[in-house]
Amino acid sequence: MQIPATQALIFLPFVLPICFHVAFTDLRDMRITNQAVILLVVVFALVGPFVMPLPDYGWRWLYLVIALVVGMVLNAAGAMGAGDAKFIAAAAPFIHLGDISVLIRLLAAVLLAAVVSHRVVKRTPLRRLAPHWQSWDKVGDFPMGLALGGTLALYLVLGAFHGS
User: Fold this and answer.
1) What is the pLDDT of residue 11?
2) Which residues of 58-93 are buried (b: 16+ CB within 10 A; e: fewer)?
3) 98-148 tens-digit pLDDT
């Protein structure tokens, strides 16, 4: 992985609780809150300059803008939810450009695991642990925050152990 291990390790304790919150609220309410997205951007804004060279830090803001524009287009086309688009944009600066192929494979694996896990739990007695979650009853929708938050968290964990 291209992300420096130290960078991933320092971001991790700040980003991990946000990822868990995003997964939880999307499962429970089928929405990713603006507060979580803003907090993720604030973490990057405050921690980023201390863990990466300033030119890299500056370029990473461009990743956020590009991801937000693409996400807005996909949202307008009905291909993704607005919260998903905003979370992807807020998460983009944390990703090293050299790790895009790793990230795509990681997202595919996490998304598959998330869909299978959600569908299995939905149809078993485990569902009784959280009987009022909206994601159980949504037809045609999936709480992508579970996969997106999981992907960012796992990317940083893997980066902390296998980064450059």
Assistant:
1) 98
2) eebeebbeebbeebeebbeeeebbbbbbbbbbbbbb
3) 999 999 999 999 999 999 999 999 899 988 889 899 888 888 889 999 999
52 backbone φψ class: left, alpha, beta (φ>0; ψ -120 to 50): beta
pTM (2 decimals)? 0.94
Cα 6 to chain centroid distance, Å, stands at 20
Radius of gyration of the chain (CA): 16
Distance CA 66, CA 89 (A): 8
Name residue 113's amino acid.
A
Give the pair of three-digit tokens for residue 5.
Answer: 């291990």
Exposure string for 2-31, b = 16+ CB within 10 A, e = fewer: ebbeebbbbbbebbeebbebbbbbbbbbbb
E-assigned strand segments in the chain:
none
Instruction: Read off the pLDDT band of 14 (50, 70, 90).
Output: very high
Encoded tokens for 49: 């300059």
Residues 147/83, Cβ–Cβ less than 8 Å: no
